Amino acid sequence: MKEKAIRKFKQMDWILIGTIFALCSIGVLMVYSASLYISYETTGEFHAFFKRQLIWLALGTVVFWVASVFSYKAYGKSIKFIMLVTVVLLIAVLIPGVGVERNFSRRWIGVGSFVIQPSEIAKLTMIIYFAYAYTQKQRVIQHFKQGVVPPLIALAVVFLLILMQPDLGTASLILGACGTIVFCSGARWRHILLLIGSALFMVLALAVSEPYRLKRVTSFLDPYEDPDGAGYQLINSFIAISSGGWTGQGLGLSSQKFGYLPEAHTDFIMAVIAEEFGLIGVYVVLALYLLLLIRGILISREVDDLFAKLLAIGITFKICIQMFLNLGAMSGLLPITGITLPFISYGGSSLVITLAMAGILVQLSTHRRQKLDVPVKQTVNHTQPPA
To answer: Is 47 exposed, middle or buried, given 0-12, 13-18 or 19+ CB atoms closer than 10 A?
Structure first.
């Protein structure tokens, strides 16, 4: 038993583990720098947000290591219970007096400063559910109604519950992660294209259905049309990026974080990185995400179990899609959606759940085919007479 545990420990993808905690280390450093002003303004203490982030990181690290040794197969066996708990939490958020309302959104449950965000839990839940569901549907995966549609019903329920908070950004992120799993599940191309078209149409229709969402869409196209309103945040992000140049102003020397750039420690933390460490700092962070993407894809290719493959793909692309949406908004390439930067932005629930996903990915890495451990056997062709 001890030898097996040691072997599993050695089989862990240590490049992936190093990448994850390099990103977390950058995150802690930048939360410390980016949150100084807002922390003092809201709590009267410069390091309040930094201390909370350290606590969440400590908790997330424990969750990470537990997930890295806990068998991934257990998630599939208990998926019905996990789904039930997730849906109950998403409904509870919408109940007045239970859900915590901030900035006209009701997305949290908790008491005082300790809150959790059920939609973050839903990200992991839906990845597990889709990976397991489409593994079980392999016999009928070529049939749209029998193989493809049933899991989409559960996705629609979760999507609508998150949309009611309202949080179109998170709902769209879950849609993208689940769509990646469907894409890799073996479904027919025409079914996949139909789903992609339907999803894009729905998200676009929802994006222009509310005035505040429409402003976000139009402001990223031309933020200078309303520089003191909808375009204010993006313009100050541009100023932070341009001020950093190649090498940056230096750690702690960002000026935009002092009340000019809203959400400098959460959604727009990469703009602070660009201002303090320049494009070189941005490229370092992007290189770490690229390395995570490569390791995740390699893990999905080297495991034999389809559930493990789809789970690895779902987790890897969820993290990378979230990174893409965040950086797209920060740079003005995409509308602002309120999506945080994985492992780096301030936020308890997001950090802990993302580390849980990373732990599962590391656990999956211990199930890769060990080619060097399998001896190559010489085979003799007995159908041919010896020379």
So the answer is: middle
